[in-house]
Amino acid sequence: MPKSPALDPMTIDVRVGSVYPAPFNASTQGRSKRALTTALGLSQFGVNITDLAPGAASALRHWHSHEDEFVYVLDGEVMLVTDDGEQVLSQGMCAGFPAGVPDGHCLENRSNAPATILEVGSRSELDEGHYPDVDLHCAPGRYTKPKFTHKDGTSY
């Protein structure tokens, strides 16, 4: 067993489910995350190991106003869905999404086997989440208290 500051990711509690309001939370059924940076006490950026069961999505298709995002496929195969279309990412491939670029994206496991990805993102409290395919918006402050609204600003 490693001692601090080292960590075995398999010892971290798995987080399942989503903070999305219903019915949007159903899109991530079969997704589980291990928050590496949280377990290590780091706060300026986030790193998760995310497992996607067959049929699961990493998130709703979205983009960030103030957060760079990077994904790396550790194992398996996922479909990267963006405004430009779809492409398969297999083990060892990666993708990046700059803050403020309105290119909705998500990863979907359309295979018959589990997939594991590494997610890295900055943690700006100014960040807003935009969801081009559904009537959903995430207000700034999502790391302290996520607040989802309709696109017109009314609460769920």
Which key features would you list for this structure?
single chain, 156 residues, mainly beta, Jelly Rolls, six-stranded antiparallel sheet, four-stranded antiparallel sheet, 1 helix, globular
Describe the 3D structure.
It is globular, with a radius of gyration of 15 Å. It is about 5% helix and about 40% strand. Strand 11 and strand 12 (about 135-140) form a beta hairpin. The protein is mainly β. The chain has one helix and 13 strands, in the order ββαβββββββββββ. The strands form three sheets. The protein has a six-stranded antiparallel sheet. The protein has a four-stranded antiparallel sheet with strand order 4-11-12-13, with no helix packed on it. It has one domain (about 10-125): Jelly Rolls, CATH 2.60.120.
Structure in a nutshell:
With 156 residues, the chain is an all-beta fold.
SSE blueprint and pairings:
Blueprint: E1 15-16, E2 31-35, H1 36-39, E3 45-52, E4 63-64, E5 69-75, E6 77-82, E7 85-90, E8 94-97, E9 106-108, E10 115-122, E11 129-131, E12 136-138, E13 148-149
Antiparallel strand pairs: 1-2, 2-3, 3-10, 4-11, 5-8, 5-10, 6-7, 6-9, 11-12, 12-13
Per CATH, the superfamily is Jelly Rolls
| Biggest sheet strand line-up | 1-2-3-10-5-8
- Rg, Å, rounded: 15 Å
Mean pLDDT: 94
C-alpha end-to-end distance: 44 Å
The H/E string reads: EEHEEEEEEEEEEE
Shape: globular
Q: Care to count the β-strands?
A: 13
* Main sheet properties: 6 strands, antiparallel
Uncertain segments are none
Helix content: under 10%
